[in-house]
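User: Predict structure, ligand NAP.
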Amino acid sequence: MTQPAVALVTGITGQDGSYLAEQLLDQGYHVHGVIRRASVFNTDRIEHLYQDPHEQDVRLHLHYGDLADGTVLRRIIETARPDVVYNLAAQSHVGVSFKTPEYTAEVTGLGVLRLLEALRDHSHRTGRKVRFYQASSSEMYGSAPAPQGPETPFHPRSPYACAKVYAYHQVINYREAYGLFACNGILFNHESPRRGETFVTRKITRAVGRIKLGLQKKLYLGNLDARRDWGHARDYVEAMVLIMQGDEPGDFVVASGESHSVREFAASAFAEVGLDYQDFVEVDPRYFRPSEVEHLHGDATQMREKFGWRPRTSFAELVAEMVRSDLKLAERELVLQKAGHDIRTRGTSL
Ligand code: NAP
Ligand code: F7E
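Assistant: Predicted complex:
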């Protein structure tokens, strides 16, 4: 009998990590996830997948680790003995990267090199062939004119994007120098009800739910004219798995092929609950970035032709799903508030 495949997922507690873990477990994989030690629980998004390690036939295994710590990454690889590594961990917030550029480079850039070196040594010592997926980003295109595809030169516009470009080239170099099956998935923005609350789509849909129920009065945003190519994270994670199950390694653009402005997203989200965004949204320059990426619009022809991949969720469906989910969350907040609980949960949002 052949052994089930083993996947190692860094960033398993993030938006994409949680959808990826679900899909891999559904396909019969053993999944090892890297989680960070935090002073509060950070495993909300994978709570529904948790398996008690005391039970038999457990297929989800969690390890403490950090992309800033090469020793522990090596130890996890030796323990998990993965067939495939999905590197989704990153300081992934573009706005925050301007505030913490050195840390962002350390984790989002150098962290990838640490993993690649650990894999190179593991493969050399054991003779095992391990595949590697890198979560590259459309932010690497930065100010390159739209539409952006596999041949478009990069022009990064933030410390985050610069770190991703560095990692992208390291992945290609490990493929060419050591024959590693290493791929870049260049993913355009993808969102979901599990999106972090400081990214613009979720910031908007959270506010829509709260404003509709009277829990919040205004929504302060930055650049409303920026355009993004938004898809659903569930669909994009499917693309990652297809890339890693392919015959040969490469670099692939994953996008919806449509772009919308932040203003259009806000208008659609408020309209879902019968409100006009203009009555609630105000521009606050504190959310402007020192350098902005104005227009991302991806060309995923290569993914369609090679893997038959295309997104299943439209822009309108994505907005509606996020608003529905955040309306439910706001309803729960309202119940708590009425029962006398303090529901002020706002951090510094960027
Ligand atoms: P996310 O929700 O911000 O998740 C990031 C994950 O990385 C979290 O699990 C986080 O752990 C972990 N992490 C952060 N710093 C770490 C460190 N020093 N060591 C180990 N783990 C660390 O991001 P996402 O939206 O799922 O995106 C997944 C990946 O795709 C990221 O690399 C991102 O840059 C990239 N990407 C995202 C998009 C998009 O539109 N979503 C598009 C292109 C590329 P905690 O939970 O403990 O914070
Ligand atoms: O911003 C504008 C902001 O933070 C989108 C990450 O997953 O996708 C994401 O990066 C746009 C920008 O995502 C606010 O200036 C206006 O133009 O949701 P965002 P992002 O920067 O595109 C890429 C592909 C990644 O790889 C990243 O990891 O919205 N915007 N007002 C705002 N953005 C935020 N966050 N907050 C605002 O109030």
